[in-house]
Amino acid sequence: MIDPAVARMLRNDPKSYVISADIVANVTATNTLEHAFMVLSKVGYSRIPVLDADDHLQGMISLAVITDKLLHVPGAAVDQLSNYTVADVMLPVEHWVDDPTKLETILNYMINEPFIPLVDEHKVFQGIITRREILKRINYLAHNLANYYEVIPRENVVEEDK
Ligand code: AMP
């Protein structure tokens, strides 16, 4: 369990650490892999969400799976990617949250994943929570904890900086 004082500080204004769906680059499962490759190259991210026509979260597409596909097509030419769709290689969404204040879950998922999708109760995509945004919060916490709480070491704590 996250320490309640830490959770309160991190959770303050949770909307501010969600990157809203309207500015998250995405593709649909019916897009060609050539299109997905171009979108990923243009935005400079290695992995983005796959949405359906009603904005439901369907999967993830990454440069790594496209490159892998490319290596298996004759001649490994990029234009061959137009013969395949995102649906052919997209990855399942393993972790997501439906509430941006679920910090314990978010931090646990984030150990292995650079961003966590946020969906509503119908799995309609709302945005993403990224490591960068959470790290900004943790940075703030690390610098400002003493402005909010009095932190007194317990007897068994060895303070190396003294
Ligand atoms: P960051 O913590 O900012 O490095 O972001 C972590 C990951 O989140 C990136 O590598 C992307 O996969 C994803 N990401 C961040 N911002 C966006 C965005 N605007 N559109 C799509 N994916 C994004």
TrEMBL record:
Domain CBS, chain residue ranges per copy? 9-78
Report the InterPro entries cross-referenced here.
CBS_CbpB (IPR048125), CBS_dom (IPR000644), CBS_dom_sf (IPR046342)
Coiled-coil regions, chain positions: none
SUPFAM superfamilies, per the entry: CBS-domain pair (SSF54631)
Q: Which UniProt keywords are given for this protein, alphabetically ordered? A: CBS domain
**Which Pfam families does UniProt cross-reference here?**
CBS (PF00571)
CDD domains according to UniProt: CBS_pair_bac
Name the chain's protein. Cyclic-di-AMP-binding protein CbpB
- Give the species: Levilactobacillus tongjiangensis
What gene is it encoded by? Answer: cbpB
